[in-house]
Each structure stands twice: as structure tokens, then as C-alpha cells.
Amino acid sequence: MRDTPEISIVMSVYNGAEHLAETLDSVLTQENCDFEFIVVNDGSTDATKKILDDAAVRDKRLHLIHQDNTGLTRALIRGCSEAKGEFIARQDVGDISLPGRLKQQSDFLRAHPGATMTACAVLFLGPLREHLYKTVKPMMELDEGLRQPNIECLRGPPHHGGTMFRRQAYLKAGAYRPTFVVAQDIDLWLRLSELGQCLGMAEVLYQARLEVGGISSRHRPEQLRLATLALMCADCRKTGGDEQALLNAFVPKIMLKTPVDRFEKARFHYFIASCLNRHDRANAKSYYHAALQENPLHLKALFRLILG
Questions:
Q1: pTM exceeding 0.85
Q2: Domains of the chain and CATH, by start
């Protein structure tokens, strides 16, 4: 690896030991590009530290940061502050970067000098790596989705982990901001879109695993509240207002790390079953049963099983 790599991949991990080795391997086996892999161990209490330390001995491209738990946003801020590459790529633990992802995304950004960010198509997987659905935001569809005036119409990339952006644009935009403990991605994309185009790719280059208790499902109300704040800040910048006053007035809600209850598990199993129902009914039934085991009064799951 050169002193200044082409690409810096940034990932935060908190207690992600179960799938960490698979994720590391998917990045470290990327070919035909020069990169560093910055991993912030955000206060993990499981085997994450040992797995990372052992991997770093084998591969010098791994740059490890072990720290006390600060939450995803602050961990990403720290990781990106260490990045040296022309481009920064995101990665989430448990997810997979498919072969050629880094090369294709960096080539795409070089071929589109007016773009500040790109996002590949993403295949979403179930807990056992079942194929659920694919999300694609090709070319200007991604850019147009980020230029919508209200939260109901606003659309971001298929997945935060499948994005790559120019480091200089990231710095000029003001980086991730600590106020946005969630929705930190949409806040950044809105600011990057003010500096250039955010263009999507049609190729599936990333696989994202859905698991019960994910941030998007557990903290949906706060995500919407902070995404709305991000839009208000964007409007402020367009009209020459003081967005800092908005940020200073924002009162974050405390998001406790509570155990996932059985009702949330039931909702998750039902969602996975619904995704599988069209192309893998046998597997879908097992998830409908799992939903009923967690919540025997889940009538939708019961109805689906009766219908067969």
C-alpha cells in the first residue's frame, strides 16, 4: 500500500464479532485498487477486539482504532478523520462488499468528475443470508431523490454502507456532524448534493444483512425527526439563514440500549417472511411461525399461515 492510498474504507463496529471475519474478508480481498481499511472498534465487549487485532497482524492495510463507546456517528467522524484516500467508502459490519466493488465505484467517480458521491445497488439479505430484495437508484434517480423539498419525498441511497464519496468533498461539506446521532448519512448526503451530483450505479456491489434490533427499525421516530432537521438545515443554507441556530436549539432524545422485546422480534420475523413469501414460501412459513412464537396474537402471521 502507498503512503496515500486511493481509497479509505471506514467502518465502525460495536459487538459485531459474529459476522466480523466475513465482512473483513470481503473488503480485504478487493482487487485492482490500493486502499486502507479503517475500523473503529467502538467499545465492543465481545470478541471484536481480538478478531481485529489478529486480522491486523496478517494484513497491514487494516488501521484499527480501539475506543470507548461513543455511538456510530462519532465513531465515523473519528474514522473518517484518519482517512488519507482520494475516496472514502463506507462499510457496515455484517455486510459484504462484493468482488470489484471498490474498483468499480472509484472508476465511476473518476468517470464523473462532477459527482461528489456514488451509491451502488444493494441486495438485502435475511438473518441466514436469504435473498430478500434489491434496491437500485441508478444515475440521476439518486440525485433527484436528495433534492426533494419534504421528508415524505426525500430518498437517499439504497444503503449507507454501499456509498463512496470524495474525501475533499466530505471535508468541504463539513463531515459527519455529531448532532445527528442517527440520520447522520442523510444530513451528509444533503450537504454533498450542494457541492455536486450524487449519482447511483445500477450494479449490485454490496449485500446488506437485516437483523432484529437494527437502528433503522428501533429508532425510526428519532431518525425521522433528525432527517427533518437535516432538511430544515438545508433550507436554511439555501436562503442564507443560520442553520447553527437550528442545531443549537435541537434537543436530542436519549436512545437507550435496551434488549429487543418479543413484539419487536415478532414484527421483524413477519417482515422477513413477507419479503420471502413470493419466491421462497417454505422459508417464509418458518418466519411466520417464528413471529407467532414471539407473539401468539400476531394475527397477520396467523392469517398468512392459514392461507398457506
A1: yes
A2: 7-240 (3.90.550.10), 262-307 (no CATH)
